[in-house]
Write a structure and sequence with these properties.
3 domains; binds ligand MGD; binds molybdenum atom; 713 residues; Dimethylsulfoxide Reductase, domain 2; 24 helices; 7-stranded mixed beta sheet; Barwin-like endoglucanases; 31% helix; binds iron/sulfur cluster; 6-stranded mixed barrel
Length: 713
């Protein structure tokens, strides 16, 4: 007999409510939960696949140990945890605590238990060598918030439901469903901006699916957004349009910002950005006059040579035009479980460059080092070399710049343990794979994404299915490992204090921690209250929250020295010679039916036309004798891939695009569907040396490549 259950989709940031028809251990049907006041029944094609990983025959459901032949065989939890503790402890005793590194990936942000568990594990390890997808993603936004607003988690989100002008720079929310903007049904919300007489403008080197529903789309040369945004600021100041409004008394550095922008007139940057000066001026005027405008930049603006500057300037434009913290501008949610409040209460606001990576001197951020430095930190011998790695919910072999270099480094580790649902490109290098519960096997509350949400909302869903095999919750795996490692190292007062605090977290459990956060939070909710409203709670529109949320000095530093100091590098970009003849620049792309590297074993999602193709402009194709459907070699400093080309004028001239997360042909990975539709990894082409020099963030956009027809096989 089937029953109806509610759940929340944890596949992307949109947190759609789902209604499921379930029979025993089987999921029969998935529809959007029309009674969810936030997502109102919206879902995307991925929702139908929400259970595919759970029931995937390729899924890892028992602890696995790598055999001498390179395969994996089943071991008991007892042996696996014992061996992991033993090997890691010995490495730590011989080489110090920084010899163990961690890498945590994107799905952690979608599981409150995994997130809390990973924090505990890292605390127990006390290593400087923490890595994550953050430095291949939103790090610049977090750094801008730390510098300007005094807290790295204080990320403003577009008040999309009230804005009259949305400037989208380097984001494609119609496909990604929004990022640092939890907005289920974002396409409808964007269409509503236009329906109420507002405007949506897209700045992107590709005419995207979002551009297709916008008022205007302007092609931009990859990596030049900071120049464009400075020209917008130039215009705002030159034409006397700066109006910080209510926030004016809190803002420091307006004069310095104006002086900095004065070097970047729309005319001077236009030849480099490709956006005409009169367009820039008009957009600046419209933005300033809109009375509720949101300047929103994301992935394409972040993961490039000037990601830090771009994130800062986005925030600066908001402040200067009075759009930060005002209805219709960019605002701060009031989440029911308030991690920012908790962090602030503990005196944790974030950190930058407290220490640097050993080999290249790249800056720490929030206790992590840039993932672009992972391979060299493993491979370069000497004091402080990484000898062991723990990965959790991450696939850096496919997600990090120069993935093959990462893989070489992984293969050279003394010991590696991965907590993951698959034997994939990364975990195939692990000595041990520990199997976590997945999706509907665990309860769900979006600790991260309600804090980035365009409306205040909360929804909790209990687990629906029993865990398969011997899977355990990420929280339990991480805290158990933490406790054992802490116990082995418990010498002296500090060692024992660490051990005791890990045991306390373990005893409390993730669910009670969540309940505590909800009870202490601004909406005075609790798990019991949320359980009583299975379709979720609407907690109202976003409200002004400044100056209360600001850092200790309660000021907005609009022109931090850190960013001003990076402007000379940007000026060099203005003078940079054009690319070598024949060279093109590479950018990325997302697809609605895919999610980073790990949904490609779902047959229903990968069926149909291959997604992993190289998009290129007709003129660029013609000049090289390339036609749609033909195979091409794409070559960069780091590697070469052979892939099918698709010629399309949706690409800007001189720019080619390849999606990330593919390349599932590696020996030893065990994903039968994915390997039959392998594609190539764009990160075989990206370059660990091509980064944002200020922040260390990965540079995925703007990598120089050459494209030529591939010789017939
Ligand atoms: N060139 C290029 N590279 C990119 C990007 C790009 O746009 N272009 N995007 C970047 C971005 S934004 C991100 S966030 C990163 C993502 O980078 P990563 O987080 O490193 O990679 P994912 O592909 O998300 O892999 C997630 C891993 O977690 C596993 N997993 C899934 N669910 C769970 C779970 O519940 N528990 C555990 N323990 N494991 C789980 C999956 O099997 C998979 O191995 O990639 C970045 N890399
Ligand atoms: N379907 C699907 N949804 C996803 C994911 C997925 O893999 N698939 N991944 C999730 C994750 S981890 C994240 S972080 C979010 C990301 O969500 P978004 O930030 O929306 O990321 P993308 O869809 O990659 O869009 C980035 C856009 O930037 C453009 N771009 C590239 N380079 C430049 C540049 O130099 N300047 C400008 N102005 N634009 C540029 C690209 O053409 C692209 O349209 O999506 C999440 N949602
Ligand atoms: S938009 Fe995101 S949260 Fe909503 S159904 Fe699709 S994958 Fe799930
Ligand atoms: Mo991401």
């Amino acid at each position: 007999m089937s029953t109806t259950k509610t759940a929340t989709c944890m596949l992307c940031e949109a947190v759609c409510g789902l209604e499921l028809k379930v029979d025993g251990d089987r999921l029969l049907r998935v529809v959007g939960d029309a009674r969810d006041p936030f997502s109102r029944g919206h879902i995307c094609p991925k929702a139908a696949a929400i259970d595919d990983v759970r029931i995937d025959p390729d899924r890892v459901t028992y602890p696995m140990r790598r055999t001498r032949g390179g395969g994996f065989s089943r071991v008991s939890w007892r042996d696996a945890l014992g061996e992991a503790t033993d090997r890691l402890s010995k490495i730590r005793e011989a080489h110090g605590r920084h010899a163990i590194a961690t890498y945590v990936g994107n799905p952690l942000a979608h599981s409150y238990g995994a997130l809390l568990g990973s924090i505990t594990l890292r605390q127990a390890l006390g290593t400087r060598n923490n890595f994550s997808a953050t430095s291949a993603d939103q790090l610049p936004h977090m750094l801008a918030s730390l510098e300007v607003l005094g807290h790295q988690l204080l990320l403003p989100v577009p008040d999309i439901d009230r804005t009259q002008f949305m400037l989208i720079v380097g984001a494609n929310p119609v496909v990604s469903n929004g990022s640092i903007m939890t907005a289920p049904g974002v396409k409808k919300r964007l269409e509503a901006v236009r329906a109420r007489g507002g405007k949506v403008i897209v700045i992107d080197p590709r005419r995207t699916e979002t551009a297709a529903i916008a008022d205007e789309h302007h092609f931009i040369q990859p990596g030049t957004d900071a120049l464009f945004l400075l020209a917008v600021l130039y215009t705002i100041f030159a034409e006397g349009l700066a109006r910080p409004g209510r926030l004016a008394p809190l803002v420091d550095g307006l004069g310095a910002l104006e002086a900095a922008a004065a070097d970047f007139s729309p005319e001077s940057v236009a030849p480099v950005t490709g956006i005409a000066a009169d367009v820039t001026r008009r957009l600046a005027r419209e933005l300033a006059a809109a009375g509720g405008a949101a300047c929103y930049s994301r992935m394409g603006a972040c993961t490039q040579e000037f990601g830090g500057l771009t994130a800062w300037l986005t925030l600066a434009i908001d402040v200067v035009t009075g759009n930060l913290d005002r209805a219709g501008g960019n605002m701060f949610p009031t989440p029911a479980a308030d991690l920012i409040g908790l962090a602030s209460a503990l005196g944790r606001r974030g950190s930058f460059a407290r220490y640097r990576s050993r080999v290249r001197g790249l800056p720490e951020f929030g206790g992590e080092l840039p993932v672009a430095a992972l391979a060299e930190e493993i491979e370069a011998p000497g004091d402080g070399q990484i000898r062991a790695l723990i990965t959790m919910a991450g696939n850096p072999a496919l997600s990090s710049p120069n993935g093959p270099a990462v893989e070489r480094a992984l293969a050279s580790l003394e010991f590696m343990v991965s907590v993951d649902v698959y034997i994939n490109e990364t975990t195939r290098h692990a000595n041990l794979i520990l199997p976590p519960s997945f999706g509907l096997e665990r309860d769900h509350y979006d600790l991260v994404f309600y804090a980035l949400s365009v409306r205040n909302a909360a929804r909790y869903a209990p687990a629906i299915f029993a865990k398969r095999g011997e899977a355990r919750d990420d929280f339990d795996i991480a805290t158990e490992l933490a406790a054992r490692l802490a116990s082995r190292a418990a010498r002296g007062l500090r060692g024992w204090a660490t051990f005791a605090s890990v045991r306390a977290v373990q005893a409390l459990g993730a669910r009670r921690m969540l309940d505590g956060l909800l009870r202490a939070g601004p909406h005075k909710l609790s798990l019991a209250k949320l359980r009583a409203s299975p379709h979720g709670e609407d907690l109202g529109p976003l409200e002004p929250r400044l100056p209360k949320l600001l850092g200790a000095d309660r000021r907005i530093q609009i022109a931090p020295r850190l960013f001003l100091g990076d402007l000379p590098r940007l000026k060099q970009r203005l003078l940079a010679p054009p690319l070598a003849p024949g060279a093109l620049v590479l950018i990325g792309r997302r697809h609605l039916r895919s999610n980073n590297s790990w949904l490609h074993n779902s047959a229903r999602l990968v069926k149909g036309r291959a997604a992993c193709v190289l998009l290129m402009h007709p003129e660029d194709a013609r000049a090289r004798g390339i036609a749609s459907g033909g195979a091409v070699n794409v070559r960069s400093r780091t590697g070469v891939v052979t892939v099918v080309a698709e010629v399309s004028d949706e690409m800007g001239r001189g720019v080619v695009s390849l999606p990330h997360g593919w390349g599932h042909h590696r020996q030893g990975a065990q994903q039968s569907v994915a390997s039959s539709r392998a594609g190539v990894s764009v990160n075989d082409l990206t370059d660990e040396q091509f980064i944002d020099a200020l922040t260390g963030n990965a540079g995925f956009s703007g990598v120089t490549v050459e494209v030529a027809p591939a010789p017939a096989p």
